[in-house]
Amino acid sequence: xxxxxxxxxxxxxxxVCVLSFNNAQAQTYCNPSFSFGCSSSDYIQSFSTTGGIxxxxxxxxxxxxxxxxxxxxxxxxxxxxGQSINYSATNTPSFGEYxxxxxxxxxxxxxxxxxxxxxxxxxxxxxxxxxxxxxVPLTATPGTTRMRxxxxxxxxSFTPCGSYSFGEIEDYSFEVMSPCxxxxxxxxxxxxxSMAATLNWTPVAxxxxxxxxxxxxxxxxxxxxxxxxxxTTATVSGLLPGTSHYMRVRSYCAAxxxxxxxxxxxxxxxxxKVPKGFVASNVDSNSADIQWDTVTNMVQWQYVVDTNRNAxxxxxxxxxxxxxxxxHITGLKEGRxxxxxIRVKCVMNDSxxxxxxxxxxxxxxxxxxxxxxxxxxxxxxxxxxxxxxAYEYEYFLGxxxxxxxxxxxxxxxxxxxxxxxxxxxxxxxVRCKCRDNNVYSVSDWGIxxxxxxxPTGISNLNNSTVTVxxxxxPAKDILNVELSGSFSTKAALYITDVAGxxxxxxxxxxxxxxxxxxxxxNGVYFVKFxxxxxxxxxxxxxx
Length: 543
Description:
Layout: H1 2-10, E1 33-37, E2 44-50, E3 57-58, E4 69-79, E5 84-91, E6 97-103, E7 122-124, E8 129-135, E9 143-152, E10 163-176, E11 196-200, E12 209-215, E13 227-229, E14 233-237, E15 244-254, E16 257-258, E17 262-267, E18 279-281, E19 288-291, E20 298-306, E21 320-322, E22 326-329, E23 336-346, E24 355-361, E25 371-373, E26 380-383, E27 390-398, E28 408-410, E29 414-417, E30 425-436, E31 439-442, E32 446-451, E33 467-471, E34 478-484, E35 492-497, E36 502-507, E37 512-516, E38 523-530, E39 535-542
Parallel strand pairs: 1-10, 4-10
Antiparallel strand pairs: 2-3, 2-5, 5-8, 6-7, 6-9, 9-10, 11-14, 12-13, 12-15, 15-16, 15-17, 18-19, 19-22, 20-21, 20-23, 23-24, 25-26, 26-29, 27-28, 27-30, 30-31, 30-32, 33-34, 34-37, 35-36, 35-38, 38-39
């Protein structure tokens, strides 16, 4: 029976309010007429604001006055024109209610002039939250005025002073601050780099200080962090490269009175990137050509080439400045790793980190210093000091002083040459083939000119009474060896390469011997005749 009776009461219509007011300094505001007010659990449980200079926190009040007319005028929101205020009202847990907020911005005692209903009508279920934000109009009259938070049961639209069955109003004070007369005019930032900029603005007469914010937020809200200064310029760092930023500046004319924000957009430069694409070319023992890729936003490059892998200090005397990304480097140390450090200097003295690359300067492949010993009429021995990094040598023996294009490879730093002609001038060419850290090079030819000794008598041909004749020479498959003179039954022919390695041994039983040479590789070989008493050496070419 009680619930039926209460429902009937909620469908009734109540009294009409009377509106009266005097002036902006001492207004008299009308109140709505509630038949039952909040006595039947139709009330605003809590109300609070944020975003103002001062804010309200009025929590868990419930139905403070059963008539539903609750005055909290001692609680005040303080804000500047243009400032955004966030609100939150918790509804009674018992019934759904319709909510809205009115503020008398022109302070004429009427709460529902044009622009004074700050929210649309919103239905909030039992225990729900009515929340959002509104902006203080730029035309709001400075001073203290009234804000009414209102909930009404079963009525989807209403006025601040109508007649209703169930509901509650909560009246608060709202102080509109006097803004500074002029906001600062933000000028285009100067000194823009990839991560910093210098901000400038015009001074405002009477301003005590200025607030500024630089961020990437496009619109609205409270921007953080806010920095204050008494100057009209500021340098900000830590910005995002290649990104749109917003500079906002406002002025303070009193402790709680400040102007609107002035905003301007600017874009930071692209990042000052570490150089890439390093290439070293034409590297020799003391010089090289280096180059690297170009970058945007470049003013100049700085580079250092040394044997220190660590990034150079800023006071390093070896730092060189250039606007050209191709450099010829000289005066390097041979047989060392050379470390190349490069960085970019961009607009506004912005700079990248140092890049690190390297190349190796090889030890030069020096020509051998030849000397001769054991010089005879038909043979000689030559040798030379070992050359650092040489892995192989080449030699060529001839009677021409013109250096050859190629030679015969040998492994050791000495050479015995045989089958020479007595009293003949020869030119011996020897050069080095070097490898240093997988860098290959060839030296110039070392040249030694010598004259063989004259013959010494009957047995002057290699101390032999036997003469040896070879044909055909050059030979392809068969080499004929014809002997003249007496020789013992222990005679043999030794076929050797130029290094003295025995390739074949043929026993001699007749004055004419045929030797199969088809399996030999093309080159120069020696035939050595030995019978215990005689020795004779002749040279032939296999083709």
